[in-house]
# Entry
Amino acid sequence: MTLEKSIDFGTPAVGSPDTVTLTIDGHTITVPEGTSVMRAARKAGLTVPSLCATDCIKSFGSCRLCLVEIDGRRGTPSSCTTPAEEGMTIHTQTDRLAKLRRGVMELYISDHPLDCLTCAANGDCELQDMAGVTGLREVRYGYEGANHLADTPDTSNPYFQYDPSKCIVCSRCVRACDEVQGTLALTIEGRGFESRVKTGTEDFFTSECVSCGACVDACPTATLMEKTVIDEGMPERTVKTTCAYCGVGCSLKAEIKGDQVIRMVPDKDGKANHGHACVKGRFAWGYATHDDRILSPMVRDSIDDPWRKVSWDEALDTAAARLQATQKKYGRTSIGGITSSRCTNEEVWLVQKLVRATFGNNNVDTCARVCHSPTGYGLAQTYGTSAGTQDFDSIEECDLILLIGSNPTDAHPVFGSKMKQRLRQGAKLIVIDPRQIDLVRTPHVEAEYHLPLKPGTNVPVINAIAHTIVEEGLADEAFINERCDLAAFQEWTAFIKRKENSPESVAEESGLDSEMIRSAARLYASAPNAAIYYGLGVTEHSQGSTMVMGMANLAMLTGNIGRPGVGVNPMRGQNNVQGSCDMGSFPHELPGYRPVSNDEVRATFEQDWGTPMDGVPGQRIPNMLDNAVLGTFKGIYIQGEDIAQSDPNTHHVEAALRNMDCVIVQDLFLNETARFAHIFLPGTSFLEKDGTFINAERRINRVRPVMKPKTGKAEWRVTAELSDRMGYPMHYTAASEIMDEIARLTPTFAGVSFDRLDKEGSMQWPVNDDAPFGTPVMHIGEFVRGKGLFKLTEYVPTEERTNRKFPLILTTGRILSQYNVGAQTRRTENIKWMEQDLLEIHPSDAELRGIRSGDWVSVASRKGETVLQADVTDRVNPGVVYTTFHHPESGTNVITTELSDWATQCPEYKVTAVQVTPSNHRSEWQETYLRTRDEMRRIEVEAGE
Ligand code: SF4
Ligand code: SF4
Ligand code: SF4
Ligand code: FES
# Structure
């Protein structure tokens, strides 16, 4: 249910090109063939009563409220299950129908609590509406017969409850869980009067339910209802905004009372999510008002001093003075900034502008450095632009999904559900992943092939797939001849044909069966439309950029680029990774991926900004940290990032931060990096922001303020005012003016403005004269760079090798309920699904070491040691262990190495050689961490007061 109703057409749209024309209540209407009579009627603006139908799921025909009469036909068929036919004449309102409908309603109401006035759904209940619509005035059966009024509610889910006494057994919830979410957690058990909605276990919390809320949205009564609505009452107004978690970028409707969010409902008009959401976006927004939030600026002279709460003026004066003093002492390039993929484009734009125009250097980098920087590099090299090629809806035309190093049902759940829908319609799936992710086998979905390769061997496997396609004559020569650089293709063909790239040669290194590699290659090459989807399992390797180019080569080789249903699609981790890269957060690139060394491009910025700019590329995050340890990089402004937790080799990061004279952290919470900060500037949550995010499909989505900044200052203003104090005034009066500047200076955004986004909805860049309404699919007809460029993808194995001392490979990932370093999700009820990070280990490796599930184990690498609880599972292969990094005390990055992608320095998080042994004590790092954290918490409480 939702406050702001959009029209519910009762049954889903039908895509048929053929149409039929019929008459309903005297209105003539033409609809696509296969459309239900109910949808046709509602399209004509007519109301047909209904309870069990809603347009996000297929019709079921159980409530018998939508009956109609059709001339020439006997009986009263249900309009939701009857297809419209050419020439039909239909009546939806007759005395006979009215009587029948009242009879149906009488039955429902005789087994329903008569507590409308005190019910949480009062005013937002379809049963109540239908009682009114059908003119129900009495219930002849009385209320004394057998009923379910005493059934007990299930309150086990932290976010919603199930009250069976109000259930009308319409099965909308069951069908939503099946068709929208694809989890199949619910069934209707029993028959007739006995039928009830059931989970597979005794309650929702312990069941397969992933808490997406699709059933709650679909329920027409108060049976499935958000606890916040039950506790706080119905919301009063709606603000449309965008989820601030993953790169799917779901559109949400924040429903508010006063300035309190009562519930978050997925927006049916959202072009990325079409009315679906996941447990994070739908429910986990409570962190925004969590007591741990720091709302006042704070300063301290040394990191050993206690924090002192100060006014914004004093904090910004101190920050400006300290940065200027650092530059004066150590030079112009001794300071820099880090932008955040959690912040809006407008906030990111100002931080990179601060570095370039105010600091006078290019020392700006972003957290994409540690996740998708190889995507930017690899796709730019081969296709000419640093972004995914398709929109999400493209998958509806895909016949084969090649999923590499990505776990969409956990990390990108709404797109994961869409993927499941397509797979259930018959598309085939190949999974390349060291771990058995859910999509390998889940209800009604089974991958054709799962290639559980050894971590670190993506490149030989993609080369072997390409080798097979070339060797077996499966390449799309017509596409290559027309669209690709032929000289580069010839050179690449000679390379890929080499024996070392054959499946037989790479089988041992990758741990895969060569015949399976060949079969997967044939399947990919023979599909009419094959699409590659990939994640951090591709990029976070020392050969991340090589692998991205390997996938781009593969798509060109088979002609799978430049139309719907195909492409190379990076699944972006954070909400605005794409945007933070687009906004010029890289030290060598100005916004729009244009080199800082290009005099012509720089001149346009210099003219607009009225200041000279440095044409020399700046330092990346790893360089800043290395130089900080060396003592030449001394000051940093970090907006919305927690490098002390998220970056590899924690000891090194901590040493670097400790060695700086001025560390400024801007964040919601006193994060791990704040332990080393001198100035803390409180940040704002997405509920307080005015701006835009860009999702994984290049979609520019509006983020609208639901409440005023709790800190008293919009985050972009903080950056602007810091710049003012450092001598470069930034004159903006609203965030929309920053977007105007972005559009003015970035050709791919030329047609973007808040006004257009508000009027026309989200748009996918490029939005310019050539594509005034945006670009859902790129590289149609021609690549952005002209001809597609095959790049050689020589396999250079990582230096991180196993040996007798470190015989296992540790790889990492995420789980559904948590998000990245967990700063947000750990401060919500989502914590109930995951209280700590676990180490997955195969039964044979566990047995060898005497380890059982639940035992504490030491995980030691060449870099450090941490202690985790073991989860013995055959999801991972022998020789591979796996963990998540959502809890700082796990210290996952204490053990990861400083090895990184050769082209972009993206850290090699996915491959660390480790030994695992039973342990009965915490690691030294964990002891120190927990001691300082307790101290931090004490300060946090004081500061938050
Ligand atoms: S819980 Fe709601 S949606 Fe599910 S069967 Fe009952 S009334 Fe229908
Ligand atoms: S919350 Fe989602 S997963 Fe859980 S039962 Fe409802 S629809 Fe299914
Ligand atoms: S799928 Fe991603 S963007 Fe959508 S609601 Fe979930 S976390 Fe938010
Ligand atoms: S709405 Fe058609 S039978 Fe229920």
Remarks:
- Residues 243, 245-246, 248-250, 273, 277-278, 280-281, 412-414 surround iron/sulfur cluster (ligand 3) (CB under 6 Å).
- The chain has 30 helices and 36 strands.
- Residues 247 and 575 are 4 Å apart (CA to CA).
- The first helix runs from residue 37 to 43.
